[in-house]
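Q: Start with the shorter request: fold the first protein.
A: Done. Sequence, then structure:
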Amino acid sequence: MLRLIKIDFYKYSKSRTFWVLFITYLITMTASIVGIEQFLNSTMLSKVGSDSAIPIPKFSFYAFPYVWHNMAYLAGMFKIFLALIIVFFVSNEFSYRTLRQNVMNGMSRNQFVWSKVLFVVLLSLAATLILFFPSLIMGLIKTKVLTWQVVTRKLFFLPAYFLELMAFGSFALFIAFLLRRSALAIGLLAFYYFILEKIIAYYLPDEIAAFLPVKAMGNMIDVPNSALMKLFGVNFREYVATQDILVSSAWMIIFVAAVFLLMRKRDI
């Protein structure tokens, strides 16, 4: 396993494109986490509140324990960016024949697939850490009374976010192995994510639509219950449902298994 990680690390550490994309994601995510509260309070709520007969309370995104839920929900909006990185670089393995070179150098087909699964795992872990540290710092700054229980009470949203990234990354991996061309794979991923599954879900009962892959992954972390939502009597789920965990995990296993099957059945 360590050998596979070293091989992939060598590939991506030498890729300027990878570092540009990853650093762009890092900066965008950090800026969004640090600036979301100020943006909502100064821009959106000020406009709504000026014409509202009801006083609109300010958002408090960073106070523990709610910061974990708030930031995990926000970060979930950026998972498509990580998926595009996965699709782009895995597809290039086929386009530039590096897969064939790896096999000629003694790597088995299964080892190649595992190296890409590990790539998804490490990228998801890195993204989770990018979420963790700014959220922790902002929570420490903004929370008036700090106790270990307050800080960790909703920390379970962090592993839920990691699972969401892993499941969606596995979906991106499957598309990359299926089409083997970065432009086609990116197009299909974007089309399914933004359009196709929404159309399918529209014609299905909610109970069945909840089992669609992207919907199940997104359902793990529901909309946070902000002060504004509570003011209008709207309440969202403040926990991670077991069903969504199981469905997302099942889809992740299916996509990874499909990748192994594709790799075994098709020429390289």
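Q: Next, the second protein, separately.
A: Sequence, then structure:
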Amino acid sequence: MTTANKLTLLRMALIPVFLGVLYADFPGSRYVALGVFIAASLTDLLDGYIARHYNQITDFGKFMDPLADKVLVMAAMCYFVEAGRMPGWALAIVLFREFAVSGMRLVAVEQGRVIAAGWSGKVKTAATMVCLCLMLLIGAPGGGDSAPDVIAVISNIVIVATTIYSGAEYFIKNRDVFKNAK
């Protein structure tokens, strides 16, 4: 197993740790959860760099790396929906985009094409992870302070806007996939 694949598996293993710490709700648990989330997010950057730089690109990595990213982000977003800091419709938009892009990629594979991650998708992922970190860092759910609500609202706007933009870009740039579909 390559180093890049091991990092992807580490990211997957950190997801239940992140959620466990977050839900344990001990003093400082959100900061510990933030540290785990940041560590998991950084493994995404590191495994991608290692895979490209050391030619460790594998079929396992092509499948598991984006899956690990999606599960990490969705786990955090589900927590924020439950905590009342993210509306369910925002999560639904993100889920729709992820399923739609994955579906488009499956159709493309049937045609012998690979749709690589675009720049806007990378920006969306980075912006989403930063926004989720801010939401973990600033303001406890039910804390009564209005500033954390502002952070949550701005973060939700950024997440939804980058999600819609990157999804639209994928479909516009690759619309011929559906013209060639049987």
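Q: Describe the second briefly.
A: The mean pLDDT is 90. Residues 5 and 62 are 9 Å apart (CA to CA).
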